[in-house]
Amino acid sequence: MSTLPWLNPTRAQALQQRLAERILIIDGAMGTMIQRHELDEAAYRGERFAHGYDRAYAPSEHAHGDGCGCARDQRGNNDLLTLTQPDIIRSIHSQYLDAGADLIETNTFNSTTVSLADYGLEHLAGELNQAGARLARAACDAAEAANPDHPRFVVGVLGPTSRTASLSPDVNRPGFRAITFDELRVAYREATDGLIDGGADVLMVETVFDTLNAKAALFAIEEAFDARGARLPVMISGTITDASGRTLSGQTAEAFWYSLRHSQPLAIGLNCALGAKDLRAHVDVLAQVADANVSTHPNAGLPNAFGGYDETPEDMAAVLGEFAQAGLLNLVGGCCGTTPEHIAAIAEAVSAYPPRVLPTLVRAQADDADKELAA
Ligand SMILES: [Zn+2]
Ligand SMILES: [Zn+2]
């Protein structure tokens, strides 16, 4: 793929240097921390969206009024909080940085036109990505200023969207698709540009359940890099959604890697859906086949009857500490149900172990050894 130079060489090199030295820590769940604030509809809406739509914008330039039909419930639209409750989002980022996270994820999981359509706020995609990256950037910059020896990186998150490009949502119409590759490409391009403009150090195509969606995201990212003549490191993280160990679009972890390998990501990994224990076999496969860094950020176990997550920081730390001991990890963090307490415990558990050695590195070392023998 890309032979473009780094957009920000100092940051990209600092990240690679750090990865060579240790297992890096990714933050935990944003949603779980937002829940603790028990925000109501008015809190989600804030001033600007007090009436359930964006006061500053009307799709057909009509004057909003009673019964114009634009009002939507915004409760649960966590990404909107970047604009309406920025202090809360920034403080969550800071709590994860205090817990030891090297990388924090932007609050942009659903900030694509595709997902924002559920809230009637498609027009905010660019703004939410840019503002989300800025907030995370500010939190990272403050942490670095307080401790210059510990670099902190902003991971610009591109979520899977609520639609799948390779499967029909309607069992009676198997040929039907709710979205096309090209529609996804356009949506991801807008989100990517926002994340880059807001100061992301890395981009992560996350919680991939449909590899075709991920390919659209990666295609859009390449377009954005080409337009700038420079690139950022890219991470990819898939999600295993069933007991047979496959993604929703039917791939094993190994097939997932080989179908995305051409994009030469900085890291490939698995997150969400399962707890750490159930992910182990699949992370192990990635660790064997991938000539990229391997990451995982599992949920705090499977959801319980109330939709919550039960694994304690100690539970997760014990399981993920073993992953590290087995040499499977380059980056580790948490997904649904994880908190700063989980991240601190995980960071502590993996700190004793060196990062996984990449297969290419093994090969390069072997080549050097051969040369020495030949000399
Ligand atoms: Zn209206
Ligand atoms: Zn999750």
TrEMBL record:
A Pfam family recorded for this sequence: S-methyl_trans
Binding site residues for Zn(2+): 272, 335-336
UniProt keyword list: Cobalt, Metal-binding, Methyltransferase, S-adenosyl-L-methionine, Transferase, Zinc
Record bears the keyword NAD: no
Alphabetized InterPro entries for the sequence: HCY_dom, HCY_dom_sf, Met_Synthase/Corrinoid
Domain of life: Bacteria
Keyword Metal-binding applies: yes
Record-annotated Hcy-binding domain positions: 12-350
Signal sequence segment: none
Named cofactor requirement(s): Zn(2+)
PANTHER family per UniProt: METHIONINE SYNTHASE
Family note: Belongs to the vitamin-B12 dependent methionine synthase family.
Stated name of the protein: Homocysteine S-methyltransferase family protein
